[in-house]
Design goal:
278 residues; alpha/beta; TIM Barrel; 8-stranded parallel β-barrel; 9 helices
Length: 278
């Protein structure tokens, strides 16, 4: 198990591994394009060379791209849905150029079409994104916090996406402790963590789990809101977060902080590393 965080790559994508190394990341996540929209800077051979050199110099063996926030595979608007397909495919290709391990995304909201149709649209979207794809960057579906008609807030929906997609066996999952907790999956102590991940293994499969966002929660269990909190300051608490880091069936995954205070992440990483040694 390796620990890291979401870091800024502003000013050049090679700044991602530089910033990750400075706070003690063993792995990291970044945006390769503006998260709220806009055209990305091209990934030229020079960018690739500088990025890979920075990865090596700053001790980062793997990294992840987080897709933009505007993605919605279940939108009732063709333009949004088709644009999401195109952007996610482009991000996979960009990640492959850089040697990125995976790219996680939020499936979106089915408020225009309903959950049943939304599942069909997400599966259709996964098929379009993966059609003819030969890159090395893996597509990762992220569990959602479940507000409104948000897709992917249950293990059953995620399993349906992976089972329904033509190349679903190649698609992985990104867990998020805060999102899962907000969706009703308890993670507050060893017993709860054990049960939640046993359920995940039965329904989705722990072999599909590649990475997890490690966040405490400002929202109560089942509160269905996406509200991250610093480690130990939220309703999961240190006991819950520690239980996740020490859960042996998860030793193959990477844990990535998306906690709200950037200046606290170096200290949080040190805390996680101390728990790993126990």
């Amino acid at each position: 198990m390796r620990f890291g965080a979401h870091v800024s790559a502003a000013g050049g994508l090679w700044n991602g591994p530089i910033n990750a190394g400075e706070i003690g990341c063993e792995v990291f996540q970044f945006f390769s394009r503006p998260p709220q929209g806009g055209n990305p800077a091209p990934i030229t051979p020079e960018v690739v060379t500088k990025f890979k050199a920075a990865m090596k110099e700053h001790g980062q063996k793997d990294c992840y791209i987080h897709a933009p926030y505007f993605i919605n595979l279940a939108s009732g608007t063709d333009r949004i849905r088709k644009g999401s397909h195109a952007v996610l495919r482009e991000e996979l290709e960009r990640g492959s150029l850089l040697g990125v391990r995976g790219m996680m995304f939020h499936p979106g909201s089915a408020k225009d079409v309903g959950q049943e149709k939304g599942i069909e649209m997400v599966i259709e979207g996964l098929n379009k994104i993966m059609d003819g794809y030969k890159g090395s960057c893996q597509l990762l579906v992220e569990i959602s916090a479940g507000a409104g008609e948000v897709m992917g807030d249950t293990f059953e929906e995620i399993a349906a996406f992976l089972k329904g997609a033509e190349r679903g066996k190649e698609i992985g999952v990104c867990f998020d402790t805060q999102h899962a907790f907000a969706s009703g999956y308890d993670l507050r102590d060893v017993k709860a963590v054990t049960k939640t991940f046993k359920d995940f293994d039965k329904i989705v499969g722990l072999d599909r789990l590649v990475a997890s966002h490690l966040n405490d929660s400002k929202i109560e269990l089942g509160g269905h809101k996406d509200r991250h909190e610093s480690i130990g300051k939220g309703l999961l608490g240190k006991e819950g977060i520690k239980a996740v880091t020490q859960h042996k069936p998860l030793k193959h995954i990477d844990l990535l902080l998306e906690t709200p205070v950037d200046e606290e992440r170096a200290g949080e990483l040190n805390l996680l590393k101390s728990w790993r040694k126990v």
